Structure to design on (494 residues):
């Protein structure tokens, strides 16, 4: 009896589509939640270095003087802690995986806007200084 | 008495997914002694606890193992919460239980596939892994990661599941049950499987207890040890019985895992029906000061995380005792007396996870 157990499956398999996914021809399925890679909106970054401090693998390096944000994609484990903790929400999680890369090619450096002190802080600063002088 | 020879088994062996080395002492074709040696994938993850904040260490604790990843993070997080005396929102405990059972399902399906492969039954191997894909898809849709979920955090979970998605998951699992029945039918009732597994590598109940077997290895020998019975997470509000088999051979251990998949589906169903509304995380301030032994049930057995903090952001000590590490002494006993050709099946029957065992 057990000999013919498999025969049923074989016959039904002959008339069904392959169970495997046609991966290179069709892109892999991704969900909205999938953690693919970290992306940054350079205009929103204030170089507060929260992401650098929170990163469990020390993949992110923020240079405050140079105003650069650098990620080593070979170190990054895509845990999304930086995305969760970013105060300006300029970091987002893309749901596409990075393609294969070399150790040197994995480093991604972005020049960012830097702290926004000049524009919003300028007005209170101007307002505050005269106030001090008055006192 | 015939001459004894030593045959090395591993660390590179077609049947082993991870590097484990065994020196098999043979008399003719029979194994008379086994000398195990581990240490090929030691990464020193426990030491890292001194360098990372306790909140960030969750991700490292999760990466101890690629299969029981979620339960490692859950165990670690539960330990920290116990030290700090945090009351985690109830919805978060239910979600943790659901994801924990999902990872048990995918681990057991992976193991059933590998086990069939070790006997050369490749079509069952592929079918088991095809079913596992459905589980992984659900995990990816709800957490964002297929095998490294990264959703546990101190004080709750990082992602919520919508009621619609929960219903969809339940429907998917019910639809899968029929296919799982077909799959487990092969393992439990197929005559060639029975010939291959019955009476091979017998572990007696007393031996299992004395040697400290845990998980399906212990339950296959008639010891009803299941840490889920202690009711961690939301499991205290769920009705379930540990699966126990009494023969102690490879077939019994295989049957325990095959039947446990249905227990897991049952637990997930109960969780989805009972899950309350509310927040999934809470604000955590301060740092752990004290020590705690956190215990949970992994797919392979009981895992213990020992956590010690001194009130600073970095913990002082973190020690993990994983199920595979505990199951190596029983494995040595199991292998004595089996034929050389049965060694791969017997080694796989304890579900060795060397990445776990060496950390």
């Amino acid at each position: 009896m057990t000999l013919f157990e498999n025969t049923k499956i074989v016959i039904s398999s002959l008339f069904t589509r392959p169970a495997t996914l046609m991966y290179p021809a069709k892109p892999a399925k991704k969900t909205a939640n999938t953690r693919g890679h970290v992306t940054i909106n350079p205009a929103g970054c204030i170089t507060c270095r929260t992401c650098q401090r929170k990163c469990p693998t020390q993949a992110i390096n923020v240079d405050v003087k140079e105003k650069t944000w650098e990620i080593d994609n070979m170190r990054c484990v895509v845990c999304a802690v930086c995305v969760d903790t970013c105060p300006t929400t300029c970091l987002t999680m893309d749901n596409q995986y990075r393609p294969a890369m070399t150790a040197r090619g994995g480093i991604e450096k972005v020049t960012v806007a830097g702290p926004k002190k000049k524009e919003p802080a300028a007005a209170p600063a101007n307002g505050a200084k005269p106030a001090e002088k008055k006192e | 008495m015939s001459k004894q020879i030593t045959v090395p088994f591993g660390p590179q062996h077609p049947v082993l997914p991870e590097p484990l080395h065994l020196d098999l002492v043979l008399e003719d074709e029979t194994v008379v002694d086994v000398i195990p040696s581990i240490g090929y994938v030691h990464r020193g993850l426990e030491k890292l606890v001194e360098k990372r904040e306790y909140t960030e260490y969750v991700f490292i604790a999760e990466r101890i193992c690629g299969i029981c990843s979620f339960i490692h993070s859950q165990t670690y997080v539960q330990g920290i919460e116990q030290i700090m005396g945090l009351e985690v929102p109830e919805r978060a405990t239910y979600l943790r239980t659901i994801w924990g059972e999902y990872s048990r399902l995918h681990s057991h399906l992976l193991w059933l596939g590998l086990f069939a492969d070790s006997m050369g039954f490749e079509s069952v191997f592929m079918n088991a892994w095809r079913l596992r894909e459905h589980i992984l898809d659900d995990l990816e849709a709800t957490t964002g990661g297929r095998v490294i979920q990264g959703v546990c955090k101190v004080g709750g979970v990082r992602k919520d599941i919508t009621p619609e998605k929960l219903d969809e998951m339940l429907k998917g699992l019910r639809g899968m049950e029929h296919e799982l029945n077909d799959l487990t039918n092969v393992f439990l009732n197929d005559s060639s499987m029975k010939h291959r597994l019955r009476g091979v590598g017998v572990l007696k109940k007393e031996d299992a207890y004395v040697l400290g077997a845990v998980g399906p290895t212990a339950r296959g020998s008639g010891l009803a040890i299941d840490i889920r019975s202690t009711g961690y997470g939301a499991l205290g509000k769920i009705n379930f019985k540990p699966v126990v088999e009494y023969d102690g051979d490879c077939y019994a251990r295989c049957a325990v895992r095959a039947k446990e998949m249905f227990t897991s589906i049952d637990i997930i169903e109960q969780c989805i029906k009972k899950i309350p509304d509310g927040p999934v995380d809470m604000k955590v301030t301060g740092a752990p000061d004290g020590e705690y032994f956190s215990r949970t049930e992994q797919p392979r057995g009981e895992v213990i995380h020992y956590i010690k903090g001194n009130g600073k952001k970095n913990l002082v000590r973190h020690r993990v005792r994983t199920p595979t590490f505990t199951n190596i002494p029983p494995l040595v006993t199991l292998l004595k007396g089996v034929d050389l050709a049965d060694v791969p099946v017997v080694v796989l029957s304890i579900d060795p996870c060397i990445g776990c065992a060496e950390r």
